[in-house]
Amino acid sequence: MDFLTNTKDWREDLACAAYYEINPTAATETNNAEIWIKRAVANASEKPSPESEAAIRIKLRYMIKELRDPALSEADQNTQIDALKDSCS
Asked: What is the rounded CA–CA span in Å between residue 33 and residue 84?
């Protein structure tokens, strides 16, 4: 995954993708996880490719897995999800 840039933008896009992936009822036709994934891919690589999209999707899966960690209390999960939502505002 070395081909992903170190810019902050794609990480913020990834956070929004995670929020809408976890809360699909909050998504709209023009604001949803897939749109944020596409933005993350575009911002993560100088030349977007299937490999960069795959890397973003893997990072998204890990992010969601960490948010849904059974070791986290429901309150902690909700706090982290709210932080994701705030990053999309």
From this structure: 12
Tokens of 75: 């309150």
Encoded tokens for 86: 């705030």
pTM, full prediction: 0.84
CA distances from 1 to 39, 65, 75 (A): 17, 19, 32
Tens digit of each residue's pLDDT (9 = 90 or more) over 32-89: 999 999 999 988 887 788 888 999 999 999 999 999 999 999 999 999 999 999 888 7
For the four alpha carbons of 43, 45, 50 and 54, in that order, the dihedral sign comes to negative
Name residue, tokens 């990053």: 87
Tell me how far apart the alpha carbons of residues 23 and 45 are, in angstroms, rounded to a whole number: 27
Cα dihedral 49→51→55→58 (10° resolution): 120
Model confidence at 4: pLDDT above 80: no
Calpha distance 19→33 (Å, rounded): 8
